[in-house]
Amino acid sequence: MAEDTASESKTPAKTRTSPAAFLRQVQAETKKVVWPSREETVRTAIFVFILMLILSLFFLGVDTLFGWVVRQLMGLL
């Protein structure tokens, strides 16, 4: 049983990549990246801005409501 765990814990030796090979791999991966168009970027930015406004108004309302409830409870004391 001890022999099984010892053999399982051994990992194969990793081969080192030369800096030139690494740069070639990086260049190959960057060629696969698909960048959004200007229209997609603008559309996404507008969506994020609208969502930010909606959420900020929601949390303003929740915070105001909780503040009012706390003031009412403190007034009872």
What does this protein structure show overall?
The chain has 77 residues and is an all-alpha fold. The chain has helices at 2-9, 19-31, 38-76.
Structural class: mainly alpha
Task: Give the integer mean of the pLDDT values.
Answer: 89
| Domain unit count | 1
SSE string, helix = H, strand = E? HHH
Taken from the alpha-carbon principal axes, the silhouette is elongated
Distance between the termini: 69 Å
Helix content: over 70%
Secondary structure: number of strands: 0
Radius of gyration: 29 Å
Poorly predicted runs of 5 or more residues: none
* Main sheet: strands, sense, barrel: none
| β-sheet strand percentage | under 5%
Tally of helical runs? 3
Offer a quick outline of the entry.
By secondary structure, this protein is mainly alpha-helical.
